[in-house]
Amino acid sequence: MKTLVAALLFSVLAGHASFAATRLLEPQLRLESQEKGAVPRVALTFDACSGKTDERILSTLIDNRIPATIFVTARWVKRNAAAMAVFKAHPDLFEIENHGAMHVPAVDRPVSIYGIAAAGSPQAVETEVAGGAAAIVAQGLQPHWFRGATAKYTLSSIGQIRQMGFRVAGYSVNGDGGSLLGAGAAQKQFLSARDGDVIIAHINQPTHAAGYGVVKGILDLKAKGYAFVRLNDATEDGSDETSN
Questions:
Q1: DSSP character string of 6-69
Q2: In this structure, what DSSP letter does residue 197 have?
Q3: What does the pLDDT look like over 10-34, one tens digit per residue?
Q4: Among 20, 25, 105, 139, which is disulfide-ready with 118 (CB 3.0 to 4.6 Å)?
Q5: CA 45, CA 203: separation in Å to the nearest integer?
Q6: pTM tops 0.85
Q7: How far apart are the first and last CA of the chain?
Q8: Which neighbouring-strand residues pair with 228?
Q9: By C-alpha distance, which of 139, 125, 111 is closest to 48?
Q10: How far apart are alpha carbons 243 and 88 in whole angstroms?
């Protein structure tokens, strides 16, 4: 009887472990807490998946001397040489990080996420991550962070990405709903940010209304006295084994 119970218990635990290893995760990332009374700060992070450059956002960051972390795909870099030149001309403001080669979710099992087919295997995850990094290195820059398409992973793909030398960038505030929010809703999302939040938005959709809200939200936070930092300039705390 004891042997049967032990076998059943082992089976249940093994099932839980298997599920934990394969379920999709969307890691959180926050900046380390500051001392009481310190100036509130947030990290602005922007994905450049494909398409063009949202000059509304880019010019706002430059004109107001606001630093940000930009996650670029290899295919975006190829089509946006002028924007890359602007980023590189302002190394005090922008850090350029890895968003993958072809904007394929860095998930090591076959699955569709928001209608996008995931990489599907460890080999394909490596291709996506390494291809994105190579495009940035070709620009004379060295990426340290990776954020995959859809920002979803498995624990095993997180481990693989970290073994490749990249920190996995989650977030704590979704600033523009994948660039699909209206201007007012995006502005509201930015205004919901508190000290230590990492905000995600998009800088590759110049025709979307969300961009107007992103700009207003950034300026609102500045007016409220918030400081802005890049990911490499702050200590962070990430969930789902992304920072331990």
A1: HHHHHHHHHHHHHHHHHS-B---EEEPPPPTTPPPEEEEEEEE-SS---HHHHHHHHHTT--EE
A2: B
A3: 443 434 344 455 799 999 999 998 8
A4: 105
A5: 9
A6: yes
A7: 40
A8: 42
A9: 139
A10: 28
Contacts of 123 (CB under 8 A, 6+ apart): none
Q: Which residue has the tokens 């001392």?
A: 35
Neighbours of 19 (CB within 10 A): 9
Residue 213 burial (10 A CB sphere; 0-12, 13-18, 19+): buried
Question: What is each CA distance from 102 to 84, 109, 130, 169, in whole angstroms?
Answer: 17, 17, 11, 18
**Residue 62: Cβ-neighbour burial (10 angstroms; 0-12, 13-18, 19+):** middle
In degrees and rounded to multiples of 5, residue 132 shows phi and psi of -65, -40
* Residues 185-244: tens digit of each pLDDT: 999 999 999 999 999 999 999 999 999 999 999 999 999 999 999 999 887 788 878 886
From residue 183, alpha-carbon distances to 202, 209, 215 in Å are 13, 5, 9
Inter-CA distances, 96 with 70, 92, 145, 154, Å: 5, 11, 9, 24
Structure tokens at 131: 């291809």
